[in-house]
Every structure is written in structure tokens, then in C-alpha cells.
Write a structure and sequence with these properties.
By secondary structure, this protein is an alpha+beta fold. It folds into 2 domains: 1-38, no CATH class; 100-281 and 297-315, no CATH class. It has helices at 2-17, 19-65, 72-94, 102-105, 112-132, 158-176, 194-203, 251-262, and strands spanning 182-188, 238-249, 268-278, 303-315. Strands 1-2-4-3 form a 4-stranded antiparallel β-sheet, with helices on one face. Helix 1 (2-17) crosses helix 2, helix 5 (112-132) runs parallel beside helix 6 (158-176) and helix 6 crosses helix 8 (251-262). The longest helix has 47 residues, at 19-65. The protein is elongated. It starts with a helix and ends in a 9-residue tail after the last strand.
């Protein structure tokens, strides 16, 4: 230990006698240390680069084993399938062309006051139709247009409300011809202006809540909101307006109503049917003795309350579809 200390002391004395040599020696030591660190770092970077390269090679091999792989042949096959799907879509949209083109091409009222009288005439005629069909309705029934009992719709809503009025007329005619016991309610979607409808269809299948106008106080009985899960709307392809009709009657009434909708001149799609049993009304006639055994139904309480939701659909590139 003493000898090592003496050697160290001699080296230090030598550096003191010749400081230039000592400085050169120190610089040499630092240079060698820096080069060693740089070599080690470069080696680590090279190992990392080799690992990334191996990973990319493995990904490439996995892609080549995919079925279908990203080859030109598969790309042509995908393009062919896409074109076939577009042709099927065009054919499906063509089936939605309204047989009576006047339904959507008829010009809407030009002013709110004209729309008011159009709706008032519709309400009066429909009440008379219900009376002839012996369908019970409320004395103040407005068939989904109670919000326009004293005034017409806003100017920007004239086309949308007019299309709804035309559609409800066809739906109620089909219902009354099925002879329900009573009409309970008719509801429609809160109509959108043309700009709101464009934003709604471009943002998703069923639109966005931000595009919907607020419901005014006293008007909720007219309106309902269609669930996005059952709507047929397709952004950029198809628009629609939905209605909910509630009535009471026997099962054959519902069956006849749905059959008439199938042959209706509107492109109507039934989206939902709900039924709730109701007590059967008392039999009409002189009394119990007038009801024969054969007239007694097998199921006594066969009257139900039905709620049917329908969509009137139209392609956006079709006749009048963008306004409905």
C-alpha cells in the first residue's frame, strides 16, 4: 500500500514538473472515454433499428398471408363488389318511387294563411270521414295539427308541414277503412326546415338533436320523437318523416290497416306495432237475450289499444324527398 502511494506521488510530482504533458494525457483520457460512450450508443441505436426492421418484416409477412391480401387482383374484386352494391342500392331506391307522383310534386301553400285554411279543410273533411266510418274521435280532434288550430305554420316550415298533412290524410283514410272503434291520437315528428333537414341527414342516420326545433309550450301532444335505432334514414341517400297513430279495435282492424298500408300509394314502412288489451265494449241490441250463442266471441276481451309507428320514406335524389 505504501509503495502504491509513493508511485502515485511520483506521478503527481512528474505532472507538476511538466504540466503540458499532464494536460495532453488528461485530454487523451477524456477523448478515449467519449469515443467509447459514442460507440456504445451507436451500437444500441443499431440494435433498436434492427429490431424495428424485424418487426416491419413480420408485419409484411402477416399482410401477405391475409385473405384477401392487398393485391391488385383483390383490389379489382373489391371495386367490382362495391359497384354491384351501388347498383343494388339504386334498384332499392327505385322501388321507393311514389306511384302517385302528385303526392310529393304538388306545390305547398305559398303563405302561412293558405296553409292554415288547407289544414282546417283537412281537419273538417277527416272529421266527416270518421263520422261516416263510425269511428269515435274527440270533439276537438285535429289529427296531429292542434298547433295550427288558429294559425298556419311558419314560412320556412310550409313544405315540411304540407308533406306531413298529405301523408296523414292517406294514413287516416287507410285506418278508417279498417273500421277501428276509436281514434285515440295522431302524432307527427316536429318538422324541420330544409336547412335543418340537410344538416340532420348529413350528420347521421337519424339526424342530430341540435337540428331539431324546440317544442313550444302547449304543442307536445302533436309531436313525438322517432328512435334513431328504428329509423330508415340514411345520410345522403334517404330522408323520411314518421308518424305515430294510436287507435282501439279488434285484431282484424290492425290486420286490415296494415294490409291497406302495404297497398298505399305512399312508400310507407311500418317500424313498430304495440298492443294493449282493453275490456270489450258491451254488446249492442235489446239485451242479453238478443245475443245468440254463435255471436259470442271465443275471447271475450278481444279489444285492444294499438300504437303503430310508420315512416314515409323518400330518396334524397327522388321527387320531393328532400322536403318531406
Amino acid at each position: 500500500m505504501l509503495k502504491e502511494y509513493q508511485k502515485f506521488k511520483q506521478v503527481m510530482n512528474w505532472f507538476k514538473r511538466d504540466p503540458f504533458v499532464g494536460a495532453v494525457f488528461l485530454v487523451s483520457v477524456l477523448t478515449i472515454s467519449g469515443e467509447a460512450w459514442l460507440v456504445r450508443r451507436t451500437h444500441n441505436d443499431a440494435r433498436s433499428a434492427v429490431a424495428v426492421l424485424d418487426q416491419k418484416k413480420q408485419e409484411r409477412e402477416n399482410l401477405l398471408r391475409c385473405s384477401p391480401g392487398p393485391s391488385e387482383e383483390n383490389e379489382r374484386a373489391v371495386s367490382h363488389d362495391l359497384e354491384a352494391a351501388r347498383e343494388k342500392l339504386a334498384a332499392a331506391l327505385a322501388t321507393l318511387v311514389v306511384p302517385d307522383a302528385g303526392i310529393f310534386t304538388a306545390p305547398p301553400p305559398a303563405k302561412p294563411i293558405e296553409a292554415y285554411f288547407d289544414i282546417a279543410g283537412f281537419v273538417e273533411n277527416t272529421r266527416e270521414f270518421a263520422a261516416k266510418a263510425q269511428v269515435v274521435i274527440r270533439p276537438d280532434e285535429h289529427f296531429g295539427f292542434s298547433s295550427h288550430a288558429s294559425e298556419g305554420p311558419a314560412m320556412e316550415l310550409l313544405p315540411a308541414v304540407f308533406r306531413q298533412r298529405v301523408a296523414i290524410k292517406f294514413l287516416l283514410e287507410a285506418l278508417f277503412e279498417a273500421h277501428p272503434a276509436a281514434l285515440i291520437s295522431v302524432q307527427r315528428e316536429n318538422p324541420l326546415t330544409m336547412s335543418q333537414s340537410s344538416r340532420s341527414t348529413s350528420s347521421g342516420p337519424a339526424g342530430t338533436d341540435a337540428a331539431k326545433p324546440p317544442v313550444k309550450p302547449g304543442e307536445p301532444a302533436d309531436f313525438f320523437e322517432l328512435s334513431k335505432a328504428i329509423s330508415l334514414r340514411v345520410a345522403g341517400q334517404m330522408n323520411s318523416t314518421a308518424f305515430r297513430i294510436e287507435f282501439s279495435g279488434q285484431t282484424r282492424t290492425l290486420r286490415t290497416f296494415l294490409n291497406r298500408l302495404a297497398s298505399c300509394s305512399l312508400p310507407v314502412v311500418v317500424r313498430s306495432v304495440e298492443a294493449e288489451p282493453l275490456p270489450a265494449p258491451p254488446p249492442t241490441g235489446a239485451g242479453p237475450s238478443s245475443v245468440t250463442e254463435s255471436a259470442v266471441p271465443i275471447i271475450a276481451q278481444n279489444f285492444s289499444r294499438f300504437r303503430v309507428i310508420v315512416e314515409v320514406v323518400a330518396p334524397l335524389n327522388g321527387t320531393g324527398g328532400a322536403e318531406s
